[in-house]
């Protein structure tokens, strides 16, 4: 093959990667909304089905619990079953579960459907290793960063989008719209998604039993999952409490204003993955964690201002910096773990997300306690403390920064 032919082949391959990356970003962004929308819809759902307070609280809890189990029980199948087929089947289950949720006539059926929907959202974490495996190692960080941007935008838009649809129509309309969007996505994935045969040649039980071994043998996975857990704790601590703070002075935002404020975070689409591919991962981790600390200092300061305009501007700046720092850590961490064992990529991604998912739960609980004892300032201190731990991790280790 001549040099010209090689160049043309490489160019065609690079062009083919772009639709795959965009498809991965859109898929993760759309599917992830199902995990966070219940947090804003739970009141409407509870009243519509005459649910008790405890039953209504289970709507969001069971969705997230289903997702956690999906990460541990379904995502490892990436290492066992042809990936395209697995993703399409899992997404098909998500479509049926969303439809069942939209049509559920009783609390018990709705709770069952939301649990299955949460588990089926594990398709998100099946897409990431597939996209990562289809690009060259020197471009893997950039590709993961772009897919992660879709994921983060989906998380940030999920609550305002669900609120808007529910206000215009009903909470059932949200789940119906989600099912329709995922159906279109399934059609696109069925047409354009490449096949990927797993490299592992083991049974399902052995896959699950390998989790502790992977954690023991892969220090990159341990360290990067640790810092990802910390920044996710900062993220959930901030976003769990900011909706309580924004209606108060000096911000004085109503429900629509709070929904609009949530869109600010969608601006955070850093180039961390691309820069990580150039060998700058270590300084970027430092910058990300210092940025989280500084951003929360700005957010705390905003709450003390008298001018509403100034307070909103400073809080907006702090929010953007916070989301940039969190997205940078997540992207660089994903890049690092997807450069590990190809035959275990599904299990490694499942473990990584499951561990930072635990961090998110800790952050939410910590924010609730901090708000009760010290209000907004205490929440910002707690959220910043997770960034401090991340920074200290950067100081004492270089693991996963190459």
How would you sum up this structure, described in words?
The radius of gyration is 21 Å and the shape is globular. With about 400 residues, it is mainly α. It is about 80% helix and about 0% strand. The N terminus is likely disordered.
Task: Note the topology.
Blueprint: H1 3-36, H2 38-48, H3 53-73, H4 83-103, H5 107-120, H6 123-133, H7 140-168, H8 171-192, H9 204-209, H10 211-217, H11 219-245, H12 255-262, H13 272-277, H14 281-302, H15 308-337, H16 345-396
Order of helices and strands: HHHHHHHHHHHHHHHH
Runs in which pLDDT lies below 50 for 5 or more consecutive residues are 1-15
Helix content: over 70%
- Helical stretch tally: 16
Radius of gyration, in Å, reads: 21 Å
How many beta-strand elements? 0
Helix/strand-derived category reads mainly alpha
The percent range for strand residues is under 5%
Shape: globular
| Spatial gap, N to C terminus | 33 Å
Average residue-wise pLDDT: 84
Largest sheet: none
Q: What's a concise summary of this model?
A:
The chain contains 16 helices and no strands. Helix 6 runs antiparallel to helix 7, helix 6 packs across helix 16 and helix 11 packs antiparallel against helix 15.
Keywords, please?
single chain, 16 helices, 402 residues, disordered N terminus, mainly alpha
């Amino acid at each position: 093959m001549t040099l010209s032919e090689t160049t043309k082949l490489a160019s065609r391959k690079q062009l083919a990667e772009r639709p795959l990356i965009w498809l991965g970003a859109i898929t993760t962004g759309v599917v992830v909304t199902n995990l966070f929308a219940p947090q804003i819809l739970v009141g409407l759902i509870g009243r519509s089905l005459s649910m008790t307070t405890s039953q209504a609280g289970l709507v969001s809890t069971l969705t997230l619990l289903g997702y956690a189990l999906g990460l541990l029980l379904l995502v490892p199948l990436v290492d066992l079953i042809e990936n395209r087929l697995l993703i399409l089947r899992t997404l098909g289950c998500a479509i049926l579960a969303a439809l069942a949720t939209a049509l559920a006539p009783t609390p018990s059926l709705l709770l069952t459907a939301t649990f299955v929907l949460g588990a089926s959202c594990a398709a998100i974490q099946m897409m990431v290793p597939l996209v990562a495996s289809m690009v060259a190692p020197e471009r893997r960080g950039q590709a993961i960063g772009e897919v992660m941007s879709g994921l983060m935008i989906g998380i940030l838009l999920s609550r305002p989008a669900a609120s808007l649809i529910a206000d215009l129509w009903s909470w059932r309309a949200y789940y119906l719209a989600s099912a329709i969007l995922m159906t279109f996505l399934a059609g696109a994935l069925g047409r354009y998604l490449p096949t990927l045969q797993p490299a592992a040649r083991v049974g399902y039980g052995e896959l699950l039993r390998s989790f502790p071994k992977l954690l023991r043998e892969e220090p990159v996975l341990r360290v990067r999952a640790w810092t990802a857990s910390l920044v996710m704790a900062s993220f959930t601590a901030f976003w769990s409490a900011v909706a309580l703070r924004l209606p108060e002075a000096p911000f004085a935002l109503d429900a629509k204003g709070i929904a609009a404020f949530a869109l600010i975070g969608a601006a955070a689409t850093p180039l961390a993955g691309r820069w990580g591919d150039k060998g700058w991962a270590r300084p970027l981790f430092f910058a990300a964690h210092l940025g989280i600390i500084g951003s929360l200092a700005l957010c705390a300061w905003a709450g003390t201002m008298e001018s509403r305009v100034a307070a909103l501007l400073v809080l907006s700046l702090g929010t953007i910096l916070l989301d940039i720092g969190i997205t940078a850590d997540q992207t660089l961490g994903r890049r690092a773990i997807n450069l590990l064992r190809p035959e275990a990529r599904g299990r490694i991604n499942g473990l990584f997300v499951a561990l930072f998912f635990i961090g998110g739960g800790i952050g939410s609980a910590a924010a609730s306690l901090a708000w009760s004892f010290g209000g907004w300032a205490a929440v910002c201190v707690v959220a910043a403390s997770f960034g401090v731990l991340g920074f200290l991790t950067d100081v004492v280790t270089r693991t996963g920064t190459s």
